[in-house]
């Protein structure tokens, strides 16, 4: 009979696994670099590392690299890990590759072109095109001129025909290309001395990584995170897992983490507070009802457009936040989900000051929009 694990235990486990409980400037590395740190928006990868105790002032950012990987979003990794990351993020099967590229799969299938072969074709052309740092639009245009119609689509907003977006992004790392940090539109450039690994260490295995950082979980949770078919995830489900029951649902955790997930979060009286960016890994878990049980809270946290950040206090999301820049100052507008305590207000204020410093701005205080 699987042992029961409470919701609070699951969230406490994730906080500890993701090192969200580490004090500031306590390390030069972060475990979540194994799975990749999404770099979307101004409070992206570097802020995600900062709130996990990484001392950014002492961090050699040239040791990091940004590449398109999971869900074709930009993610930051250790540069030395890129060969194994390329192997880890490769589609598991033809069906998986087709699902990851969405509507781009249909014309390729109609033409009898295997999807994995198509990704290799795009990667080869892309590498030939990007011989020096190249803006994304220029690279896409050059690749479009060299590919056959099944790879292309007419884009009404642009009023031109060009390569489908998902194959372009997912082929970039296969082509040995990275994104220059801080560029928008992104600039692609070659990864020095890059060669994908033939296989990857289990530390970078995406299924294991999801269980390690966002477990306990089900195969469907992982499939939704990767945009992969559930069948592919089930076929590769780890054998060294322990089953637990979370709110009536049977889930899996890596057996090496089974003891840790049963540990209860011990409150110190002063909440451990973090201002999570909109695409922080903690918010990427696909069991959203566990993070925000109230439907109105879930709607506020994950709108279709314009996601806010989340206020995390002792493992619980207790509200949302948005930045409000005025001149050289940064104010944080917080929408709390419950009445705030003096300790929470003080901790949020301290985090707001850290965020302002991270952005190179002066702190502008906290505006608590409701109580």
Concise overview:
This protein is an alpha+beta fold and 371 residues long.
Strand content: 15-25%
What's the shape?
globular
Roughly how many Å is the radius of gyration? 21 Å
Query: Counting H and I runs of at least 4 residues, what is the number of helices?
Result: 15
> What kind of sheet is the major sheet?
5 strands, mixed
What is the share of helical residues? 25-40%
Spatial strand sequence of the major β-sheet: 12-13-14-15-16
What class, by secondary structure content?
alpha+beta
The count of β-strands is 16
Task: Calculate the mean pLDDT score and round it.
Answer: 95
Distance between the termini: 43 Å
* pLDDT < 50 stretches: none
List keywords for this structure.
globular, 5-stranded mixed beta sheet, alpha+beta, about 375 residues, about 20% strand
Give structural notes.
The protein has 371 residues and is α+β, with helices and mostly antiparallel strands. Helices cover 34% and strands 21% of the residues. The protein contains 15 helices and 16 strands. The chain has a 5-stranded mixed sheet with strand order 12-13-14-15-16, with helices on both faces. It has a 3-stranded mixed sheet with strand order 1-10-11. The chain has a 3-stranded antiparallel sheet with strand order 2-4-3. Helix 6 packs across helix 7. The longest helix has 17 residues.
